[in-house]
Design a protein that fits this description.
- The protein is built from 11 helices and 8 strands.
- With about 250 residues, the chain is an alpha/beta fold.
- The chain has a single domain, classed as Rossmann fold (3-Layer(aba) Sandwich), CATH 3.40.50.12640.
- The protein has a 6-stranded parallel beta sheet, with helices on both faces. A two-stranded antiparallel ribbon has the order 4-5.
- Helix 3 packs across helix 9 and helix 3 packs across helix 10.
- The mean pLDDT is about 95.
- The protein binds adenosine-5'-triphosphate (ATP) and magnesium ion.
- The site of magnesium ion (MG) has 2 residues, from loops.
């Protein structure tokens, strides 16, 4: 039991959710390690949403509103930390939800499907019953995608994705949005729009931005997407991290 007045309460609460998710089969062992890497980068951004992350959130919201076939890809860490928020975001866009796992097993797919259903999701793609299509350039079960989901999507939100898969998806011409605390990861660099923030803060910010932009002229939304420069935004994110540790931003 973690006390609310503990200075690391929020972080420890997330850690407890991750441990529990591992116990009940949502998360593979490596999912816990990925969370630890995320924690380290969250420390470096003072566990706060930056103005650069907000810029990326706005571009992501515009791209999702413009999309003809948007899909949100859900892995173990996402299902462990933000199942209800993901369902809310999908309804708000609206978008399909697809379970997509790096270490795919039928058992883990079933557990995550249950978690998403309990969170209110109705149509879930990528389940064991769903028709699969192979993503070129990947091998084994991690090459699977849903024939009616990621495979035909124009815009894909892939939080905490692996770099290989991000590269394979951009080669298929998809507009990729990712949420990744590590601005140096291959996924962060490969994606069109990278939100460098913790998924627990990024998803509520995305929901808010979508509500704010919903009635905006599509031409204006296009301009927001076109004007977003991911490389520049990642560079500024890194510069701000280093300023934090030279006292300039104190
Ligand atoms: P790549 O293959 O793209 O170079 P990686 O090898 O770092 O990336 P993984 O080890 O698969 O990728 O880890 C997934 C990423 O998710 C990590 O970069 C980590 O920083 C990030 N991450 C972990 N937890 C969170 C979280 N709660 N919110 C946002 N990002 C997170
Ligand atoms: Mg990786």
């Amino acid at each position: 039991m973690i006390h609310k007045d503990h200075p690391r309460y929020e972080s420890l609460k997330l850690r407890a959710m991750i441990v529990n998710a591992h116990k009940i089969g949502i998360l593979a062992d490596s999912g816990m390690i990925a969370h630890g890497r995320g924690e380290a980068f969250d420390y470096l951004i003072s566990e706060k949403t930056s103005s650069n992350a907000i810029k990326a959130v706005k571009a992501a919201a515009a791209a999702l509103l413009l999309a003809e076939n948007p899909v949100i890809s859900v892995n173990g860490n996402t299902a462990a930390l933000v199942p209800e928020k993901i369902v809310k975001l999908a309804k708000e866009i609206p978008s399909q939800i697809e379970i997509n796992l790096f270490y795919r097993t039928d058992k883990r797919i079933n557990v995550i499907e249950k978690v998403l259903k309990n969170a209110g999701a109705e149509n879930i793609l990528g389940t064991n019953q769903d028709e699969k299509a192979i993503i070129k350039g990947l091998d084994g079960p991690r090459s699977y995608s849903s024939k009616n989901g990621i495979y035909i999507a124009d815009v894909v939100l892939i939080p905490l994705e692996d770099g290989d898969r991000a590269e394979a998806l951009t080669k298929l011409g998809k507009l990729l949005i990712t949420i990744d605390l590590n601005p140096l990861s291959r996924t962060a660099k490969t994606s069109n729009i990278t939100i460098v923030d913790n998924i627990v803060r990024a998803i509520p910010n995305l929901i808010k931005a979508i509500k704010e932009l919903r009635d905006t002229d599509p031409l204006v939304l296009h301009v927001i997407v076109e004007n977003f420069d991911n490389k520049e935004n990642l560079q500024k994110t890194l510069e701000n991290i280093s300023k934090n540790y030279t006292g300039v931003n104190k």
